[in-house]
Write a structure and sequence with these properties.
Length: about 500
């Protein structure tokens, strides 16, 4: 018997099977072979067709069943992880109205900024634990203002995971943690933030009905079963945004624990039970997967948009065949990249830089000294420095990081990146060989109140390494200070 989990990213759709008896990973694969396209009709916009996610999910599901020679009737339940903050709109006939405005789209920054001024920090700080920002609610307001014909037809807004769940069950629903991603959950009133919808002139009826995690959220329809190969009638039992889900996959569920992710974007996700904050823009606060109104567990999230996407861009630019080659070349260069500094902020507005769209910079480039190996090392260091800079911001907001765990994904496979970060934050980082899709699959098998079982799953099956800080840290600190000086200089030029 098996559980199946999906991770709907902006680069690919991943699917995982885990054994229902022991929760060991059976298989993980992704679709398509390359990366899914992101459309940018205008600078700083980013859109994807949700039907593309669905197509690749169907292909991946059929592949994993076929390639592992399993009886699909042995699949018991579904878990879904998905790219956060996106907006999907359907009409009253459940027809998709436009492409999704996804997480790295910056078009609604000004709308969120104006709402923050109008509403005031006393209101949004205590009720949303965030500024309205460039999130789902503000993106919906953008559609209302700029695409009135489409908005007039819209019956429901959804997050990307809600749309996938709808395609599987034909039921339009969402979750508290999902609404919190869109700035649509009121932590103080413990209900949908209808007052923000009212401020934006959006009807509360557009909010889907709520379902709870670790309980049945709908069943696979005959149509979805035909498209995917899944059995008719099995339940979806879990859905969460990719970063809360990655934290769950790493057993980061309790205050003091931090999950680090180094994929297309970089993320620090710290669990807290505090209901106050000093940071409402640079750091965001979302209901964790185990949030309940009785036990409000919060995930404080700091995102670096320009992380793995920068390293991938360099690979494509230089036509290097794989990341291992890049990492090997990087290791030939000394700490500090011989003065070459990389600011990796080239993937939209950076929340931790107060929504500044700084762009990517390679600074101090010496054409007689630096080569592609220096570019690779500077990129890895620049991303690691960004993580360390983010950790400093989170500490000013009261973070007490006691345990840091990371997935064995793109960036954390690089010894340079992992060692640089561990040395700068002066804490070991434990690496686990797990993925968001595996976490979602395991979560599909959990009953409410059984989250302690994740600890056994992660520790028993997934731990692969522990990265310790270097004892001689001064050279890292000097390089980091040089990077910070360069960052502050560039930020002043933007003001």
């Amino acid at each position: 018997m098996y559980y199946i989990g999906y991770d709907i990213g902006s680069s690919s759709v991943k699917v995982a099977l885990v054994d229902a008896k022991n929760n060991k990973n059976v298989a993980v694969l992704s679709e398509p072979d390359g990366e899914m396209p992101i459309d940018a009709p205008h600078p700083d916009w980013a859109e994807q067709n949700p039907e593309m996610w669905w197509k690749h999910l169907c292909q991946a599901t059929k592949r994993i069943i076929l390639e592992n020679k399993i009886d699909p009737q042995h699949i018991l339940a579904v878990g879904i992880s998905y790219q956060m903050h996106g907006l999907v709109l359907v009409d009253r006939h459940q027809k998709l109205l436009r492409d999704s405005i996804i997480w790295c789209d910056s078009r609604a920054v000004a709308i969120g900024d104006q709402a923050a001024k109008d509403i005031g920090v006393q209101k949004y700080g205590t009720h949303l634990l965030n500024a309205p920002g460039n999130f789902t609610a503000s993106k919906l307001k953008w559609v209302k203002e700029n695409e009135p014909t489409i908005y007039a037809q819209a019956a429901y807004y959804m997050l990307p995971g809600d749309y996938i769940a709808f395609k599987l069950t034909n039921e339009i629903r969402t979750t508290k943690n999902g609404l919190s991603e869109g700035m649509l959950w009121d932590y103080k009133e413990k209900k949908v933030a209808d007052w923000l919808l009212d401020h934006y002139g959006i009807a509360p009826s557009m909010t889907p009905s709520l379902v709870e995690n670790f309980e049945d959220q709908g069943s696979i329809t005959e149509k979805a079963a035909l498209a995917t190969g899944l059995p008719i009638g099995i339940p979806i039992r879990y859905r969460a945004g990719d970063q809360p889900n990655n934290a769950l996959a790493l057993n980061v569920l309790r205050p003091g624990e931090v999950a680090a992710t180094g994929g297309t974007s970089g993320v620090l996700f710290a669990v807290t039970d505090r209901n106050t904050s000093q940071e409402f823009s640079r750091v965001n606060h979302f209901a964790h997967v185990n949030y309940t109104v009785e036990n409000p567990v919060i995930g404080s999230l700091l995102c670096i948009n320009g992380a793995g996407i920068q390293y991938s861009w360099l690979k494509n630019l230089t036509r290097i065949r794989d990341f291992n080659t890049m990492n090997s070349l990087s290791a030939e260069v000394a700490v500090g990249s011989e003065g070459l500094v990389n600011l990796p902020f080239g993937n939209g507005s950076e929340r931790m830089l107060n929504n500044c769209n700084l762009g990517t910079h390679f600074c101090n480039l010496n054409l007689n000294l630096h080569n592609e190996a220096h570019l690779f090392r500077a990129a890895l260091e620049g991303i690691a420095f960004s993580f360390a800079y983010g950790m400093e911001i989170m500490k000013t907001d009261g973070l007490d990081a006691q345990i840091i765990r990371a997935g064995n994904d793109n960036l954390f496979r690089s010894e340079i990146f992992s060692t640089t970060l561990a040395t700068l934050i002066k804490q070991p980082i434990t690496i686990y060989n797990t993925t968001g899709a595996i976490g979602a699959a395991r979560a599909a098998g959990l009953e409410k109140g059984e989250l302690d079982r994740m600890k056994a799953h992660v520790n028993q099956h997934d731990k692969v390494a522990e990265i310790n800080p270097q004892s001689d840290s001064q050279i890292y600190q000097d390089a980091y200070q040089n990077w910070k000086n360069t960052l502050e200089h560039q930020l002043k030029k933007e003001q």
